[in-house]
Design brief:
The complex is a heterotetramer, with 2 copies of chain A and 2 copies of chain B. Chain A has 9 helices and 14 strands. Chain A has helices at 19-31, 59-66, 77-90, 104-117, 158-169, 190-199, 216-227, 261-270, 282-285, and strands spanning 10-14, 34-39, 47-48, 53-56, 70-73, 94-97, 120-122, 128-131, 135-138, 147-154, 174-179, 205-211, 232-237, 274-275. The mean pLDDT of chain A is 96. Chain B folds into 3 domains: 21-92, ATP-grasp fold, A domain (Dna Ligase, domain 1, 2-Layer Sandwich); 96-222, D-amino Acid Aminotransferase, Chain A, domain 1 (2-Layer Sandwich); 231-380, 3-Layer(aba) Sandwich (Rossmann fold), CATH 3.40.50.261. In chain B, strands 7, 8, 9, 10, 11 and 12 form a 6-stranded antiparallel sheet that branches. Chain B is elongated. The model of chain B has no long low-confidence stretch (mean pLDDT 91). Classes of the chains: A alpha/beta, B alpha+beta. Chains C and D meet through helix 4 and helix 5 of C and helix 9 of D.
Chain lengths: 287, 381, 287, 381
């Protein structure tokens, strides 16, 4: 069992003929993901990846022809707002946006619209989802994690891989790994995913990887305290970051004295979360 | 990207927000000329992209053109929070009766713009939020609709602003929001918004921060970038598509991924080392990009040792190792380097580096310990 | 019994200090409507109508102070979109917009927003609502109709009064009269009101007054045919209207061969509706 | 308010929609000069605000400036559907390969704008809708977001437009929507949108209808109103805030309320009379407004009898009656008049009119019968 994606998930790749889109579509297929279609306007009728995947001009046509129920976007930042609107309007219930560098105003519009239309969005600027042994939708390397009962949710990319790898080294498997992305305004948040893990019978414990900036970790701590029964282990990146400087991710910035790692760690700890000193220390806290 | 006060106010004015008459100068003589033209008292305000200008003596009032010239001479000698003052704004002085705060930013939790106002203007809004949270009023703006007129009016009502000022305050709030929205700003702030003795409302000070990701939509704003106000190394990093932040330590860090880069710094610091920088080379970094990153790290003379932390993921570690070796060939200055490589073909990658006499590590902690030890040796030498 | 408004309805009047607002607020109070508050920005703190009705600067404050659950708008057309947004955002569940001359683009925005927020809008350019003997919200003259079991729904103003008066002359009373307004894009439509009348145990028959333009009457006919058990009597104004000319109401125009009275009458008749030759013939068709 | 083809196309061009080179002329000599300047074949197109210009010979192609001059002379003599041709548009002729329809209007049912496109352009879209509904594609636009790029592209795909034209077609669709939206139009239409032999896309013909209720936001558009194209009586009615439409009958109608005015006309027609007009004097009509309305009705020489139908509602009927009498004092021409008054104090109102020797009626049907009888008498006289 898992959350959000599994073997049945039928994946559409928006921007499939781009370099990134094509490479990761191939990686997803190799992992066993049911990649059923791609969309690139103007390239409808082509077939890619050894002629296995049909390309459509529009999401609407791709859905009609293939019954895709999840779309992953490798569309350049300038066009990705439109691509997300298109996915939502065509009726895709789950949209995973890998693209980074999306303007904040675009994200505000998209989030408001997708919320109102009941479309779940993960990302942008995220590595996507992985349900080990079943499906990967995005760019998380498949071989660094195995099926199991730990749910992982993270604002980061490679730091998440680091954690998956550390878990793998200790023989700990994962139910689903969700990268929610490092932008200040995104779709699915920590709390949404924690709720899903709490409800998923096959997830026994959760690892939550946060970072400086915003107050999502604090709200997650409140949720954990009030609504979670499963154990949660946390890690917060950016304890050594100075205020006022953006640490790579658009969302990773300590502003006006808020968003500091120390506050987040304290909030999580007071919610009963065991917070690791460094990523490699996480597995030990799960036992 | 941050804009100067004078740039911000000019943009506000273009969106219908009234601002004081004034002009920018770079020499005391220019300041005197502007003050003469404005005829009367003026404010001489240093234009640097940091806070604390007032406390540092960077904002002064002059009663005459002569005084303005003298004060400007002093201000143009200042260095505020490490930044030399190169320009001053000379504004007509106003007789201030009331100081108000008015700002727009994006609310990360709600995912919408939020307008914040307070009758307690002139001081940092965070200070008001801490000491008098009840004096702050907010209105969230639907990003699909924009600011509605009633919201601007409701802010005035909620602040208990005298009724005769509601109309003008609403116009200013709409103008501020228009500025924020049409320029893809992440912050647009008037502090203070003053009511003068003549019952006029003015944006006395202003601040705009732009969304870098949206700058492509506003090529005219790119020209407002003040290159003098950015560390040269950070500017160069930006040019290479690298995300680099200089810090005070002596251990250079090169990592792929922002979260992992922060975690790497944290581990170094946690084990007693001092990171010299944050540097995220992003995904799929090729030799050329790695070389540029190394050059930037080493342009900091404090750096005595370096740690590379690369989580290969899908990328093959042997390729990464070769890229590092190629990049290092182009670098002249030699400092200690330990590389940690994880991912596909990691053993092969580490072997390639070992054959080139490079230190490698398999865990993050191990790598950190090695680089910290080396950094202390270098320092004690 | 009735639909939408009754004795318990607590009415807020937006634009109460204007000439129209003040006059009709007074008329509503005389009828027995619970007028509890008025809003005119900049006039908060005043009291109007012999000091009985408090005026507030904002809808939010009016609701907090008086618990109004319905707002009727006599706000000039240029400002009425904003006033409707304000009412919706303050949490008013029923908004009645009397104002005429509202730009179509404004109405498209408002309707989309109010739909999405779950706010019921009646109007614009409508005479409002009247539940005889209980409450009137709008400008329908109160003395031309009495309580009873006929539901009346209409796109028109004085033509509705004509019908109410004709019913009164024959001793036929009304459960609720709903003026949905003569604009091409409005809130509540015929079908919505027909559904409410169908569900209202005290409404026994319905009079529906349509006119040329659009296809709302045709859709109402479909609804009547598929979902109504109660008898419906109809009247369509504009049989003598030429195509391409706007007959007063912005919505009353025969365009490109559609919206003709004859088509509407035919649709209603084939749905089992008895269609009157003229307004004064309606009462006879109800028996 | 309808705009001429040349005005509509100019507005399209301002929003990035390509149009043919061309100019407006009022004399054959001007047409010749323009044709010479355009150098080659031209289309000479009458500019009148009615349909059926083509069938009436109001659109002609000329191979030379001389021919253009001759054709223009003929066209400028035409009267199309009752409207004399005063202006012609002279457009550079295009070699047309494909004709497409593209329009935006408001969908009353959905409450949103809808873009309509069809590969069957050049004929009335209603005709296509009737004969080939499958050849029409539509996209509904969220009024809070506006047209999304993908929607424009999807239209091109759905129309099976050759792929090399998708980009340009999408730009034109966005330009057309921008025109519609930014001007508060209720209709903006390009028919035909042509693909030329040189593979260029052009708006060959254009039409815009504006929302009268929103004209206050676009004062510059009010200047585009062609007063010559409006009946003088309708123009005057508009000036008085009256809603008046001239018809072909001989019974003048004055009614308060649009629905009731239509019903009144219907009753007259149903009983064998011929209404001369639709006239809604609106709510709370005072004596001055009534007087203006009567003047307008009587400016139609065909009017031989009048019927007033006033449902007083909240207004008192005695006041209405006095208003009518005052208004009639200012009117010179005398025709039969019957007044039907209903509402508060209706008996008193009718008594006032009766004392002034005016006919009154209590029911709509009764009043209609009286006025019809009088109209027939007048006609037979």
């Amino acid at each position: 069992m898992s959350i959000l994606i599994d073997k049945q998930t039928r994946v559409l790749v928006q921007g499939i003929t781009g370099r990134e889109g094509l490479f990761h579509a191939s990686q997803m297929m190799d992992y066993g993901t049911q990649v059923v279609a791609g969309v690139t306007p103007g390239k409808g009728g082509d077939w890619v990846l050894e002629g296995k995947i049909p390309v459509f001009d529009t999401v609407e046509r791709a859905l009609a022809a293939t019954g895709a129920n999840c779309s992953v976007l490798f569309v350049p930042a300038r066009f990705v707002m439109d691509a997300m609107f298109e996915a939502a309007d065509a009726g895709v219930p789950l949209v995973i946006c890998i693209t980074e560098g999306v303007p904040i105003q675009d994200m505000m519009k998209v989030r408001r619209y997708l919320d109102q239309e009941g479309v779940r969005l993960v990302g942008p600027n995220c590595p996507g989802l992985l349900t080990p042994g079943e499906s990967k939708v995005g760019i998380i390397p498949g071989h660094i994690t195995d099926p199991g009962s730990i749910g992982v949710v993270s604002r980061s990319g490679t730091l998440t891989y680091e954690v998956l790898y550390a878990l793998q080294l200790r023989g700990l498997g994962v139910s689903t790994c969700v990268g929610i992305g490092g932008d200040p305004i995104n779709g699915t948040g920590f709390t949404d995913v924690l709720q899903m893990f709490e409800d998923d019978p096959h997830t026994e414990a959760v690892v939550m990887i946060g970072e400086i900036g915003g107050s999502e970790e604090e709200r997650a701590a409140e949720f954990i305290s009030s609504s979670m029964t499963k154990p949660v282990v946390g890690f917060i990146a950016g304890r050594s970051a100075p205020p006022g400087k953006r640490m790579g991710h658009a969302g990773a910035i300590i502003e006006a004295g808020s968003g500091m790692a120390a506050d987040k760690i304290a909030a999580l700890q007071s919610a009963g979360v065991r917070v690791a000193e460094h990523p490699e220390a996480i597995p030990a806290l799960l036992s | 990207m941050k804009l100067h006060e004078y740039q911000s106010k000019q943009l506000f004015a273009e969106h219908g927000v009234p601002i004081p008459r004034g002009e920018v100068a770079e020499t005391p003589a220019q300041v005197r000329a502007i003050a003469e033209q404005l005829g009367g008292s003026v404010a001489v305000k240093s234009q640097v992209l940091v806070g604390g200008r007032g406390k540092a003596g960077g904002i002064r009032l002059a009663k005459s053109p002569e005084e303005a010239e003298q004060l400007a001479a002093a201000i143009l000698e200042l260095e505020i929070n490490g930044l030399p003052v190169r320009k001053v704004l000379v504004d007509e002085a106003s007789e201030i009766v009331t100081e108000i705060y008015l700002g727009v930013t994006n609310d990360r939790t709600q995912g919408t713009p939020v307008i914040i106002a307070s009758a307690e203007g002139g001081i940092e809004i965070e200070e008001v939020a801490r000491d008098h949270p009840e004096k702050i009023v907010r209105a969230w703006v639907d990003p699909l609709i924009g600011l509605r007129d009633y919201q601007a009016r409701n802010l005035a009502a909620a602040m208990e602003l005298p009724r005769q000022h509601w109309g003008e305050f609403s116009r200013m709030a709409r103008g501020l929001f228009d500025t924020y929205w049409s320029l893809d700003a992440t912050l647009a702030e008037i502090n203070p918004l003053v009511i003068t003795r003549e019952e006029k409302l003015l944006a006395l000070d202003g601040k705009i921060v732009l969304d870098d990701n949206a700058l492509y939509r506003h090529p005219e704003l790119e020209e407002l970038r003040d290159l003098d106000e950015e560390a040269p190394s950070e500017r160069e990093a930006r040019g290479h598509g690298l995300s680099y932040v200089k810090l005070d330590g002596n251990i250079g860090c090169l990592v792929n991924g922002a979260g992992l880069a922060m975690a790497t710094m944290d581990v170094i610091k946690g084990l007693g080392g001092e990171p010299a920088n944050f540097l995220d080379i992003g995904g799929g970094a090729d030799a050329e990009k790695v070389a540029a990153a190394i050059q930037i790290i080493l342009s900091d003379p404090d750096v005595h040792a370096m740690m590379f932390n690369i989580f290969g993921g899908i990328t093959r570690c042997d390729e990464v190792a070769r890229g590092i070796l190629m990049a290092l060939e182009e670098v002249s200055r030699e400092v200690y380097l330990v590389t940690r490589l994880v991912g596909t073909n990691e053993e092969l990658g580490r072997r390639i580096l070992a054959e080139a006499k490079m230190d490698t590590a398999s865990s993050l902690v191990e790598a950190a310990e090695m680089v910290i030890a080396a950094s202390k040796v270098s320092v004690s030498e």
